[in-house]
Design goal:
This protein is of the alpha/beta class. It has 19 helices and 28 strands. Bound molecules: zinc ion (2 copies). One of its GO terms (biological process) is double-strand break repair.
């Protein structure tokens, strides 16, 4: 008797497609979670088996066969399939669109000739070995936080709220250690922001667990390295994965603890593709695995804080800086120079710098704008330098002698005279880090100034080298953007000067204040970490703003509670739930036409509790010669929004020349 026929449901990475049925060739053994190669149209594509059945509704002549099974490792785990399925439903994509791209390229290709030897090498990686690194004594607060987490069973979302330097990492390491000891098969995921996943952090975790395999995943890694880490976690050989947001899609055998450090960091939200939040999926995953999840931050996101206040998340607080002699810095607000002044640095700031440098300590000057000046302009006719492809200015980079678009990378040389009226005296307007570096070199000719931003250091290793020079005392004044605010402890920085927070104070974006507060708290945390008290000097016109009062007291709770009150009064996130529909086309009219039609379709289907707003051009309307518009959808209750989006997405009508995409929980609304 012939063997009974079998059909495999396979998901592939193609928009709008559900699982497709394929015939399983005789003799091929398949299980759910197997990676396969299947024909799709005229191509062969990678897919994942989600189910097997003896029957299919697809007519026999339309059925095609599974071309190959990638049997180099065990099938994807059921929990991983559930995760990608949930992510697809939540973020409004096809299951295959969330699952297939989540695999390293290496794991979704038909194996080449060197695959076997690669696998052998990949499986040969082992623990670091050697003596375990130092285990500092936990202080009372740290010990109490660990005790509470370890005493809880099953899924509990914790917020580990602790000021910079309060020793959150030590709490993580202690929890990881206990988790690994309690269950010899347990695995831990430690997620950190892009910029924080440094070789030092990796080394610190490895040194702490010399007998366990600790692997890392970073978007900078070449695919082979990523695949090696992925495989080690998937096969249960790695006990700890340290990674950026992409690591949330690693396939674990037995996930027993999830930690998200700096949970407020916006790099956990993907800006393209599935547009997922790694932090939010981390919480879901802990729930699914019935294990604790720790969200750590000195300035939790407002969404997270709302859940603490509501009682959904439990709060653990670290109030003391871990090192006994470290004290909070003093915060001083000063008026900026009047408009049109030749320098950005005020006399107050210069004097404070002088004093700090004389005392043998370093100064950090923070300005969140790279380049020399944000724009070149002509005083005679008002011409300003703009990008040829985007609706934005080009930034003047003096060293490189270029005008550069920071959105699309388009660049051009410096015109010798105004292109419009011919006036040769075109001038840089405003100040970026490059200009401040120049100003400081003139103001402090005997001091060594180092600038750290994406222009001066472009790779992880260049950044490491720059930070090493600061630590080694080869630098007196450090100038930098966001890059220096995060994750780096500068023991000898005695003064932090914040030059122009006002640009962000004036931003209309919902989260601008929250993000500014987090950044300033982080920058302030760079001062005064060893011994003597540090000082933070902020140049701002908004000295009466409660944001600065809270900052001066380092009082996140007061700030966050006030923001929550404000959001509640204005019915803003997190008290409403949002999604955005984006459309891109050659002309704005086409993009807006698509969205207008989408509004009409939506109005017919939306229940009264779902609000659909009018289409508007995106804040950056033209990007790389593509015109962009957006449309906001909002509901007070999450289920109403999600149900509507799922129906709406199916009924949107494609238009030639218009690309559209949906984003759930957009950060910029
Ligand atoms: Zn001109
Ligand atoms: Zn551009």
């Amino acid at each position: 008797m012939a063997e009974a026929e079998q059909f495999a449901a396979v998901i592939v990475d193609a928009p709008g497609l559900g699982a497709l049925d394929y015939r399983v060739p005789e003799g091929m053994l398949l299980a759910p979670g197997d990676r396969v190669i299947v024909p799709l149209g005229t191509r062969k594509v990678p897919g994942i088996v989600t189910g097997l059945s003896p029957v299919t509704e697809v007519p026999a002549k339309k059925l095609r066969r599974v071309a190959a099974v990638l049997s180099d490792t065990i099938p994807l785990h059921a929990e991983w399939l559930a995760l990608t399925r949930f992510a697809a439903l939540y973020y409004q994509r096809g299951w295959g669109e969330s699952a297939v791209p989540a695999l390293p390229l290496f794991m979704r290709r038909a194996p080449g000739v060197r695959h076997e030897s690669w696998l052998k090498k990949a499986r040969a990686i082992g623990p670091a070995g050697g003596e375990p690194g130092p285990r500092p004594q936990l202080n009372d607060e740290q010990a109490e936080a660990c005790r509470q987490v370890l005493a809880s069973g099953g899924y509990v979302p914790w917020v580990l709220f602790g000021v910079t330097g309060s020793g959150k990492t030590e709490v993580y390491l202690h929890l990881i250690e206990e988790t690994l000891v309690r269950d010899p098969e347990a695995q831990v995921l430690l997620m950190v922001p892009e910029i924080n996943l440094t070789p030092q952090l990796e080394a610190r975790v490895r040194a702490r667990f010399p007998d366990e395999l600790v692997v890392a995943m970073h978007s900078d890694f070449p695919d082979g390295e990523r695949a090696r880490s992925w495989l080690a976690v998937h096969e249960g050989r790695a006990r700890v994965l340290v990674g950026t947001r992409m690591s949330i899609f690693a396939s674990f055998r037995k996930l027993a603890l999830v930690i998200v450090d700096e949970e407020h960091d916006t790099s956990f939200k993907a800006g393209d593709g599935l547009r997922f939040s790694g932090r939010d999926l981390a919480v879901w995953r802990a729930w699914k695995n019935r294990c604790p999840v720790i969200l750590g931050s000195a300035t939790p996101s407002i969404e997270t804080w709302a859940k603490v206040r509501k009682g959904d998340y439990k709060l653990l607080t670290l109030t003391k800086r871990a090192s006994a002699e470290a004290t909070l810095p003093a915060i001083r607000l000063v008026n900026p120079n009047r408009k049109g002044a030749r320098t950005l640095l005020t006399p107050d700031a210069a004097a404070a710098m002088e004093a700090t440098l004389k005392a043998g300590r370093q100064v950090l000057v923070f300005l969140n704008r790279r380049g020399y000046a944000p724009v070149l302009s002509c005083p005679s006719c008002g011409w300003v330098s703009t990008c040829r492809r985007c609706s934005t200015f080009t930034v003047f980079h003096k060293g490189a002698k270029r005008l550069v678009c920071h959105h699309c990378g388009w660049q051009t040389g410096i015109p010798p005279a105004c292109p419009k009226c011919g006036d040769p005296d075109i001038l840089p307007k405003g100040t970026g880090t490059e200009r401040i570096e120049e100003e400081l070199a003139v103001r402090f000719p005997d001091r060594r100034v180092l600038r750290i931003d994406r222009d001066s250091v472009s790779t992880r290793h260049e950044a490491e080298e720059a930070f090493r020079r600061v630590h080694a005392g080869e630098v007196d004044i450090l100038v930098g953007t966001q890059m220096v605010a995060k994750g780096h402890d500068f023991a000898n920085v005695g003064l932090v000067v914040v030059l122009n927070p006002d640009a962000q104070m004036l931003s209309p974006a919902t989260r601008a204040r929250e993000q500014l507060f987090a950044t300033l708290m982080q920058v302030a945390g760079r001062a005064g970490r060893a011994g003597a008290q540090g000082e933070v000097l902020i140049q701002t016109r908004f000295q009466d703003d409660p944001l600065f009062a809270a900052l001066a007291r380092q009082d996140y709770v007061a700030f966050a509670d006030a923001v929550l009150e404000d959001r509640r009064a204005n019915m803003a996130v997190p008290y409403v739930h949002q999604a955005m529909l984006y459309a891109e086309a050659k002309s704005l009219a086409e993009a807006e036409f698509f969205l207008t039609e989408a509004v009409e379709i939506g109005m017919r289907e939306a229940p009264p509790e779902v609000r659909i707003y009018d289409p508007v051009p995106m804040p950056l309307m033209r990007l790389m010669n593509v015109e962009r518009a957006q449309l906001l959808v909002e509901a007070d209750e999450r289920p109403a929004l999600q149900a509507f989006l799922a129906r709406w997405r199916q009924s949107l009508r494609a238009r030639a020349g218009v690309e559209w995409t949906m984003e759930v929980d957009p950060l910029e609304a």
